[in-house]
Design goal:
Strand order of the largest sheet: 22-23-1-24
Main location: cytoplasm
Catalytic activity: 3-phosphoshikimate + phosphoenolpyruvate = 5-O-(1-carboxyvinyl)-3-phosphoshikimate + phosphate
Structural class: alpha/beta
InterPro entries: Enolpyruvate_Tfrase_dom, Enolpyruvate_Tfrase_sf, EPSP_synthase, EPSP_synthase_CS, RNA3'P_cycl/enolpyr_Trfase_a/b
Protein name: 3-phosphoshikimate 1-carboxyvinyltransferase
Strand content: 25-35%
Number of helices: 12
Subcellular location: Cytoplasm
Radius of gyration: 21 Å
Bound molecules: shikimate-3-phosphate
Shape: globular
Number of strands: 24
Distance between the termini: 16 Å
């Protein structure tokens, strides 16, 4: 695992047809929240299907450091004995969130209104990412931040002893910032109000409601106004984590771009705040069908079937960006095999993810013979048609799991192999990626194998 160790160079080779069933792991966003909300409830939360990727395991460790009892029962089953809202103990070691922006930002929110101090750090990628977007609103509750200039980790937070409720308009589309403010509002008397101009993933609102918090969401001219009543007693839950649509994106993509493929990805949530990629692919002409549509845990779910398709480039509506923000890297790969241009606007948030994802994808695609245009907020990929991408490049992954997986997928449909400098970060979100792809028929090699 390269975030903590030696890089793992890999290559992917023209393969196919890819066929079979791809059971992707649990949802990363919901896995983090299950552990954190479980730690803030009184009593035992039971979790099935937790994503056991490095990011989530770092959050589990952090919850133990704040005093919760978190137990791995095996086979994706976990138990969390929570300490209650306001019950976090002061950790006696630094909290290391590894590669995870979601982990660190939500945990900072969760501790910001308790009278304790904690120091947070992460890996080389996380320590470059902006944290002011979370510490600024947390300061409104009375939380103090000390540390590096520019709002980067490592940072020490001193939680507010007498937190004051806050009304905050989130200045960028970010579920992490929204969630941090709502979590800070839990241990604050009165009403905390968060306003977002664009709808972002709503797992925090849905799950906290399930845990017994009172949260009201209203669509107004100002945007989505979310009002939380402070000081609830959170009631432990039994949670089944659905499979991750952001991980499903990879086997779906290879099903569409590798000649002759037919891939089934069962049990994928189609919550509209997460499913923008699948809508986009269907607009591009993808043979992507939703089978066995059903409701599970209150969410729409379907088995996705992706078959090799002739795709056309489209302009992705910018207002859809938040619902597919993690999927632009793999969309840019799929777009490379479409006929014509795919235009992605309103995507500047990609520049502050685990890497600058516009730059990382543009450089790697260019190294493989694809023409890409970019500006601060836009990426345009010039498609080369089915089977039309030469490949043959070496792509830098910048400690970013989704960049690594995207380029591995690219190489499966190119004329020549595609190399990546480091596949280690894939373990943060999709530890079974390599095996799952090989089981579908993909040729993926490690440099020394
Ligand atoms: C996430 C929110 C998104 C997303 C990330 C997970 C979450 O980040 O990119 O992978 O679980 O809340 P932003 O909140 O920065 O948009």
């Amino acid at each position: 695992m390269s975030s903590h160790g030696t890089p793992i160079p890999m290559s992917s080779h023209k393969s196919g047809p890819l066929t079979g069933v791809a059971n992707v792991p649990g949802d990363k966003s919901i896995s983090h929240r299950s552990l954190i909300f479980g730690a803030m409830a009184v009593g035992e939360t039971q979790i099935t299907g937790l994503l056991e990727g490095e990011d989530v395991l770092d959050t589990a460790k952090a919850m133990r450091q704040f005093g919760a009892e978190v137990t791995d029962l095996g086979s994706g089953e976990w138990s969390v004995h929570g300490v209650g809202v306001g019950g976090f103990a002061e950790p006696d070691q630094v909290i290391d969130c590894g590669n995870s922006g979601t982990g660190v930002r939500l945990i900072m929110g969760a501790m910001a209104t308790s009278p304790i101090a904690a120091t947070f750090t992460g890996d080389a990628s996380l320590n470059k990412r902006p944290m002011g977007r979370v510490t600024d609103p947390l300061a409104l509750f009375g939380c103090q931040t000390y540390g590096r200039s520019g709002g980067r980790l490592p940072l020490t937070l001193i939680g507010a002893a007498e937190p004051v409720p806050t009304r905050y308009t989130v200045p960028m589309p970010s579920a992490q910032v929204k969630s941090a403010v709502l979590l800070a509002g839990l241990n604050t008397p009165g009403e905390t109000v968060v306003i977002e101009q664009e709808a972002t993933r709503d797992h925090t609102e849905r799950m906290l409601t399930g845990f017994g918090a009172s949260i009201k969401t209203e669509e107004t001219k100002e945007g989505r106004v979310i009002t939380l009543q402070g000081l609830p007693e959170l009631v432990p839950q039994t949670i089944t984590v659905p499979r991750d649509p952001s991980s499903a994106a990879f086997p779906v993509a290879v099903g569409l771009i590798v000649d002759g493929s037919d891939v089934l990805v069962p049990g994928i949530g189609l919550n509209p705040t997460r499913s923008g990629l699948f809508t986009t692919l269907r607009e591009m002409g993808a043979d992507l069908t939703y089978e066995n549509e059903r409701i599970e845990g209150g969410e729409p779910v379907a088995d996705l079937r992706a078959r090799f398709s002739t795709l056309k480039g489209i302009e992705v509506p910018p207002e859809r960006a938040a619902s597919m923000i993690d999927e632009y890297p793999i969309l840019s790969v799929v777009a490379s095999f479409a006929e014509g241009k795919t235009i992605m606007r309103g995507v500047k948030e990609l520049r502050v993810k685990e890497s600058d994802r516009i730059d990382a994808m543009a450089r790697g695609l260019e190294a493989c013979g694809v023409e890409v245009e970019e500006d601060e907020d836009t990426m345009i990929v010039h498609g080369m048609g089915p089977g039309g991408v030469p490949g043959g490049g070496t792509c830098a992954t910048h400690l970013d799991h989704r960049i690594a997986m995207s380029f591995i997928c690219l190489g499966l449909a190119c004329k020549n192999p595609v190399k990546i400098d480091d596949g280690g970060p894939i373990a943060t979100s999709f530890p079974i990626f390599e095996k799952l792809m090989k089981d579908l028929g993909a040729t993926i090699l490690r440099a020394n194998s």
